Each structure stands twice: as structure tokens, then as C-alpha cells.
Amino acid sequence: MPVLVASDLDRTLIYSSAALALTMPDPRAPRLLCVEVHEARPLSYMTETAARLLTDLGDTAVFVPTTTRTRKQYQRINLPGPPPAYAICANGGHLLVDGVTDADWHAGVQARLAEECAPLAEVSEHLLRSADPVWVRKHRIAEDLFAYLVVERDLLPGDWVKELAVWAEDRGWTVSLQGRKIYAVPKPLTKSAAVREVARRTGAELTLAAGDSLLDADLLLAADRGWRPGHGELADSGWTAPRISALRERGVLAGERILREFLTAARQPI
After folding, report:
1. Domain residue spans of the chain
2. DSSP secondary structure string for all residues of the chain
3. Contacts of 126 (CB under 8 A, 6+ apart)
4. What is the pLDDT of residue 158?
5. How far is residue 84's CA from residue 9's CA, in Å, rounded to a whole number?
6. Does pLDDT of 269 surpass 80?
7. Does the predicted TM-score (pTM) go above 0.90?
8. 48-60 and 252-267 are packed helices; what angle lies between their axes, rounded to 10 degrees?
9. Are 23 and 249 in contact (CB under 8 A)?
10. What is the pLDDT of residue 1?
11. From what superkingdom does this record's organism come (predicted)?
12. What's the CATH number for 118-186?
């Protein structure tokens, strides 16, 4: 039976220049491969070693990129290795099959959100009303499913995210702070639900996963084995769980380590 590998992308497998965490002397820094260009500028990277590992992984297991990015943002990424047959975007709101949205899956997600959560318009309006323009740089609606703010972290009040999370909790939404972005996401909109669907379709009996943020926690808990890097929301909070390995590596070298762990586990399934 195939092994399914579902991995978050940003700050898990791929890294912006600000997130690389290259703490070693310059002559010892790893060679980097650009895997995303935005507005004619390089945006995201992985090490060349990680690129080779990901190519091997694509030949060994069913690799499923699993991201909160919108479809448009995901399609900017040019990962090495065979093109994934499945990809999960918008935190599970879109299941792509050979690059095309599965319309039935998306309709089912929309129906569940309408039934179980406060409407997106209410949450978006609250974000606009409660956030201070002094530290907000952008307000975005993603795929008509969730909202996020791009903020100046240095100016963000210490308790604002916690207060937003309490407000959102009562309305069936969750809040996550990732880098300069504050996400407000409906609780039923999960990566894990979409990964389970891919596992059903592929017949996978072993699921491996990795992620760094609060929005990845459900994905890690749903997997048979999981890894989190030494940076990000989960590491900062000390989050752990059975079958989850907390790695010490931070930045782009954590992405390399995660891919090594994926390959080892996929080649020697228990």
C-alpha cells in the first residue's frame, strides 16, 4: 500500500529569505534553490540537498503539498520532483487533483462551514473594526473561505491576538499568528479532513505529516507519524503529542531534516 506524505509548505519545507535562519558562518551556508518567484523576484527557497530529497520522496511516496495558501499563491511554487497528483490549498478548502479543484469536495466544505460557523463577513468586519491601521498593512479574504491580516509584528499589541482568539472561539473560528500574518479560519476548515480524503482515494495505510503552525496541529494529530521544526507557533508554545517528533533544527535546515525523516519512514514503514 502507498505511503502518504502530507506536508505544510511555508516555514516547513520552503522558506522566505527572512525565515532561512542561516546562523552558520557564510562560507558554511548551504546552497539554496529558489522555488518561488513573485512579481519577478525570488521569494521562497529550500536547500539544494532538500530539493534532491524531495525528488526522491516523490518517487517513493504519495507526496501531498498541504497549505493554507490560496490556489493562486500555491501555483507560484515550483517544487522539484514529479508534479504532485494531489495538493491541498486554502487549509483544506480546495483539494486539487492534477492541478484542478475537486468541485464536489469544495461544495461539501462550503456546506459544512455555512452550517457550523459564523459567516465570513462577520469575522472580516470584526477584523477591520478592531485592528489598528497603525500596524495593519493588508487585509485579505482568501478564496471566500477565511481572512487574514498582514501586520507589523513590532507594533502589534501583545494581547490583541489572544483577545481575537477568544472572540473567534465563540463563533466557531480559530486564530493563528504566522510570521507577519494573522489568520482567522473556521474550525471545520482543516487540512486533516482533506488529507483523510486523499488517503481514502489512494489506499494509503500510513500517513506522515509535518507542520510548524497552530493550523497544522490537526494535520499532525491525524497522521501516523509527524514532525514539527524547532521554530514556529507549535515550537514556541511547546506543543507536542504522541507520535510527533519535535526537531531542534530551525529555518531552512529544518526543512532538510524533515524530508530526511519522511524518506526514512516511507522506506521503512512500521
Report:
1. 3-110+190-267, 118-186
2. -PEEEEE--BTTTBEEGGG----S-GGGPPPEEEEEEETTEEEEEEEHHHHHHHHHHHHHSEEEEB-SS-HHHHTTB--SSSPPSEEEEGGGTEEEETTEE-HHHHHHHHHHHHHHS--HHHHHHHHHHHS-TTTEEEEEEETTTEEEEEE-GGGS-TTHHHHHHHHHHTTTEEEEEETTEEEEEETT--HHHHHHHHHHHHT-SEEEEE--SGGGHHHHHHSSEEEE-SSSHHHHTT---TTEEE----THHHHHHHHHHHHHHHHS--
3. 167
4. 86
5. 13
6. no
7. yes
8. 30
9. no
10. 77
11. Bacteria
12. 3.90.1070
Class of domain 3-110+190-267: alpha beta
Q: Is 239 exposed, middle or buried (0-12, 13-18, 19+ CB in 10 A)?
A: middle
C-alpha cell at 24: 552558520
pLDDT computed for residue 270 by the predictor? 60
Percent of the chain with pLDDT over 70: 99
Alpha-carbon distance of 107 to 144, in angstroms, equals: 12
Averaged pLDDT, 147-166: 94
The torsion angles phi and psi of 43, rounded to 5 degrees, stand at: -125, -45
Calculate the average pLDDT of the chain: 96
pLDDT in tens, 81-92: 999 999 999 999
Phi-psi region of 251 (alpha: psi -120 to 50; beta: other; left: phi over 0): left
Q: CB neighbours of 162 closer than 8 A, spacing ≥ 6?
A: none
| 24-47 pLDDT, tens digit each | 999 999 999 999 999 999 999 999
